[in-house]
Design a protein that fits this description.
alpha+beta; five-stranded antiparallel sheet; Aspartate Aminotransferase, domain 1
Length: 121
């Protein structure tokens, strides 16, 4: 088992199902890597794309690191009192809108491909 699979094993059955689903979905995207950072699974390409955050109330947040820059056309993302992060909380695997999540993930990847490099001084 890798570090993220070990991480997933510590949660309830519903959380495990959601975490496993998103882990497989995200790590199968082109050029996406994953690792545990800040005690949760993060997924990145050039920069952090998103992370999974199991909540004490039994839900799992799928949070996008540059969520404030995503279009949120389907209205699923919530900024909550944050400046950059936007997330969606799920409680049951069957409640995940798969096509909408795929759209958001692909938009996050497109945004990541257009990372502006800081000019060197």
């Amino acid at each position: 088992m890798d570090a993220i699979e070990n991480f997933i094993a510590d949660y309830t059955a519903d959380q495990q199902a959601i975490l496993h689903y998103f882990h497989q979905l995200i790590k199968d995207l082109p050029k996406v890597s994953s690792k545990i950072s800040y005690r949760v699974p993060f997924y990145y390409r050039n920069r952090w794309l998103c992370y999974l955050n199991p909540k004490k109330d039994g839900g799992v947040d799928l949070a996008f690191c540059r969520g404030n820059e995503l279009s949120n056309e389907n209205g699923l993302l919530e900024i909550k009192n944050r400046k950059l992060i936007a997330s969606i909380t799920f409680y049951k695997l069957k409640d995940i809108p798969k096509s909408a999540i795929n759209e958001i993930l692909h938009e996050a990847i497109l945004l990541d491909e257009h990372v502006l490099k800081s000019p060197k001084k």
